[in-house]
Design a protein that fits this description.
6-stranded antiparallel beta sheet, 41% strand, 2 domains, mainly beta, 2% helix, Beta-galactosidase, Chain A, domain 5, 440 residues
C-alpha cells in the first residue's frame, strides 16, 4: 500500500493492483469507504474501445463480458490476474503510479497501454490527474465509446445515490435521491444528467463520498447487491454502491488522453458546496480543435487521428456523416448564433446543425440497460445553412434562434456534414467568434 494523509482524510493505493485507490477514510479512522470484492471494483481507471469482442493471440473473452470489447482496467482482470506497477513515487504530497493494466474480460492479457495518475490531498478532497498512454498495434479508428472517468465503488453503507437533476444548476435547487432502502432502484446501473457536474454516494446520515468531474454532466451509478442488503457490508462483500462520470471518446491507437476528477469526503452539503464553488463551464460553449477533439466524436466518418494538427480532417464513410458534441449544458437565450469555422470539398452545397434540448427525460434517471432503458434520442429538425464547396476555410454563422425548438436549456450539438466524397476540415465550433475563442 501507498498512503497520503493530511490530517483530515487518508487515501491509499494498492501497488499490487496497479495503484488503484482501495482506501479512503477520515484521518485517525479505520472506516474505509472503498469496496474491493473483486478487481473490477475500487476507484480505478477503465477505458473502452473496439473491436467487440476483443480477441488477443487466440484468447477469447469471458462470455459474460464479451460485449465490453477492448477494456483495460487498472486493478486486474475478471479472472483475478493483477495489473503490474511500472513506477511509483510518494513524497508525502503527491503520489504517482504508472502501471500496465489488464484487459478485464480476458484471462491474463495485459492492456496495450499504460495508465498513470497523480494524487494529492487538499482539505477533505482527493485531487487526481489521470492519463491513458495507448500503444496498440491495431491502428483501426473505432467509434467513440463511453469512458468511466473514473469508476468508483463504495461499501454497502454508502448506498444513497444523490445528485442535482434539473435545468437550474447553481441556484441551490433541491437535490434528488436516486436510490433508497425502500426501493429496488440502482440495478441495472442508472444513467442521469447532472449539470452541476457532481454526485455522491451517502449513508443514512447523508455522509459519504462525492465526485466532481469538471468536464462531464452525464453519470452512471447505483447500488448492486442482494435484496435487503442496502446499507450493510464491508470491503470484501458483494453489495456495493457505484458512480462514474461518463464521456464518450474516440481512443486512437496512440492517444495520450488525460482527465481530472476530485473525490470529496464529507456531508451532502459539503460535497455540493465544493462542486458549485469550482470554476463553472463557459455559458457560451466553444471548441477549438487545436490539439485534440475536445471530446467530440464522429458518426459515419473517420478523421486524421491523434495528434490533431490544428483542425479535424474528416472523411465520410457513410451516407450521413456527422460530428457530435460532448454533453454540455447551456441556455438558448444566451447563445442565438453558432459559428462554424470549416472548409468543405467539391460538391458540398449545404450542411445542417441540430441541437439537443433539455427534456423531461433529463429530469430523471433511467436504467443503463434492460426493459427500462431510455428510448433513443430523436434530434429536432436541423437548421440548414449553405456552404462553399471550394476547400477554403470560412466562418459560417448559423442563427439557431430561427428554430422554434431552440429555446431554454440545451445539452448537445450535431453538425451534419455536406454530401461530398472529399474530406472536410473543421477548425472550431462555438458560440464565440473564432478570433475571440480560447484555445482548448
Amino acid at each position: 500500500m501507498g498512503y497520503l494523509d493530511n490530517g483530515t482524510i487518508k487515501v491509499g493505493v494498492d501497488l499490487n493492483l496497479g495503484g488503484a485507490i482501495t482506501y479512503l477514510s477520515r484521518s485517525g479512522s479505520d472506516l474505509n469507504l472503498i469496496n474491493s470484492y473483486d478487481w473490477g471494483r475500487q476507484v480505478q481507471m477503465s477505458h473502452y474501445s473496439g473491436p467487440m469482442p476483443f480477441v488477443k493471440d487466440g484468447k477469447e473473452p469471458a462470455k459474460e463480458w464479451a460485449g465490453l470489447g477492448w477494456n483495460p482496467i487498472q486493478s486486474g482482470d475478471c479472472r483475478g490476474k493483477r495489473s503490474r506497477v511500472l513506477e511509483h513515487s510518494n513524497d508525502g504530497r503527491i503520489l504517482h503510479v504508472k502501471c500496465v493494466p489488464m484487459q478485464w474480460p480476458m484471462n491474463d492479457v495485459p492492456g496495450e497501454c499504460t495508465f498513470e495518475w497523480w494524487i494529492e490531498l487538499e482539505a477533505n478532497t482527493v485531487k487526481v490527474r489521470a492519463r491513458l498512454n495507448n500503444d496498440r498495434p491495431d491502428r483501426t479508428q473505432y467509434a467513440g465509446r463511453d469512458q468511466e472517468l473514473p469508476a468508483v465503488y463504495t461499501n454497502g453503507p454508502w448506498y444513497r445515490l444523490v445528485t442535482y437533476l434539473g435545468d437550474r444548476p447553481f441556484e441551490n435547487a433541491p437535490v434528488t435521491v436516486l436510490t433508497r432502502k425502500s426501493d429496488a432502484a440502482g440495478w441495472p446501473w442508472l444513467r442521469f444528467t447532472s449539470p452541476e457536474r457532481w454526485d455522491a454516494l451517502l449513508d443514512d446520515q447523508d455522509r459519504g463520498v462525492g465526485i466532481f468531474q469538471p468536464e462531464a454532466i452525464h453519470f452512471a451509478g447505483g447500488f448492486a447487491g442482494q435484496d435487503g442488503k442496502k446499507g450493510t457490508g464491508s470491503v470484501r462483500d458483494d453489495q456495493t454502491g457505484y458512480v462514474s462520470p461518463i464521456l464518450s471518446e474516440i481512443l486512437d491507437h496512440n492517444i495520450v488522453y488525460e482527465y481530472r476528477f476530485v473525490l470529496i469526503l464529507g456531508s451532502l452539503e459539503e460535497i455540493r458546496a465544493y462542486a458549485v464553488s469550482q470554476p463553472r463551464p463557459d455559458p457560451r460553449p466553444s471548441f477549438r480543435f487545436e490539439r485534440d477533439r475536445q471530446h467530440w466524436r464522429l458518426a459515419n466518418a473517420v478523421d486524421q487521428g491523434f495528434p490533431v494538427p490544428g483542425e479535424l480532417r474528416i472523411d465520410p464513410t457513410g451516407s450521413v456523416a456527422a460530428l457530435l458534441s460532448p454533453p454540455y449544458f447551456w441556455r438558448a437565450e444566451d447563445t442565438p448564433t453558432l459559428f462554424v469555422e470549416a472548409a468543405f470539398g467539391a460538391g458540398a452545397r449545404e450542411a445542417s446543425l441540430a441541437f439537443a434540448p433539455f427534456s423531461d427525460d433529463d429530469r430523471k434517471a433511467w436504467a443503463q440497460w434492460g426493459p427500462d432503458v431510455r428510448k433513443p434520442f430523436i434530434w429536432p429538425k436541423a437548421v440548414r445553412f449553405p456552404v462553399a464547396g471550394d476547400g477554403k476555410i470560412r466562418v459560417y454563422e448559423i442563427k439557431l434562434d430561427s428554430s422554434a425548438d431552440y429555446r431554454s436549456a440545451m445539452l448537445g450539438l450535431r453538425l451534419v456534414l455536406p454530401a461530398s466524397k472529399e474530406a472536410c476540415r473543421v477548425r472550431s465550433i462555438g458560440f464565440v467568434r473564432p478570433d475571440e475563442m480560447h484555445i482548448g
